Prior knowledge:
The chain is α/β, with parallel strands linked by helices. The protein is built from eight helices and ten strands. It has one domain: 3-Layer(aba) Sandwich (Rossmann fold). A hairpin with a 2-residue loop joins strand 4 and strand 5. Helix 3 packs parallel to helix 5. The longest helix is centred in the middle third of the chain and has 14 residues. Adenosine-5'-triphosphate binds next to strand 2 and helix 1.
Amino acid sequence: MLENSLGLPPVIAAHGLFRSFGTTVALGGVDLNIQLGQSLAIMGPSGSGKSTLLHALAGIELPDAGRITLNLPGYNNVQVETLNDKARTKLRREAFGFVFQSGLLIPELTAIENVAMALMINGVQRAAAMDRAAQALAQLGLAGMEQRRIGQLSGGQQQRVAIARAKVTGAGVVFADEPTGALDSTTGTEVLDILLEATVGAGKSLVMVTHDRSVAERCDRIVTLRDGHIVTDSATAQRQTGSWS
Ligand SMILES: Nc1ncnc2c1ncn2[C@@H]1O[C@H](COP(=O)(O)OP(=O)(O)OP(=O)(O)O)[C@@H](O)[C@H]1O
């Protein structure tokens, strides 16, 4: 397995990922290594396989073929495709964080309950979980909004709650799907700043699907998909031109 310059294996090493839906080939044999502390943007036209790839890397939906090897604290050399549903659910709760465009926060709960819930399902007692959630919300500029329900927050504030939830569990990899897609450009920039700070700024990895090139360019690396294949990878391009050590 390829190692990075510090001799560490990739946090996620995907090899030969293949996924089809009927006659549609969503992933046609994708190889992708994600390094510790790296921010990776996945771009490509609509239908090119971005979400399918993200879902496979995150253990949400398994590929039809291929291997996904994890190397995260508590998950050394784990083959995701061999895990059953229960084990993959545990993996997602413990090791991964998710910041999606919408739909992953629970609208009936308050901001603080949404964040604390992520800890409680990992076994943290309610009082401690609420304390840690309050701290995380305050760090993301949401002090005073803890008791608001999700519908009483703006789109940008909702994304901050999602980032707080991803951050609070200590997830090693955060997956984001169009995290700024529903936001105006100023709010989108603020949310992206916070997302990068909470992930790569804290030594974690970020894997983000985006249609927005200016958002992608804030990442260390951009891969572009077309018809289920990676057609460009800025890391490879930099290595080929000699500007990547
Ligand atoms: N559950 C599904 N059932 C059938 N076809 C699917 C399913 N999920 C994805 N596909 C198909 O697989 C291909 C890749 O879809 P995917 O959602 O990964 O693309 P995408 O690049 O994320 O697109 P978009 O930018 O529009 O979100 C598309 O042709 C899509 O129609």
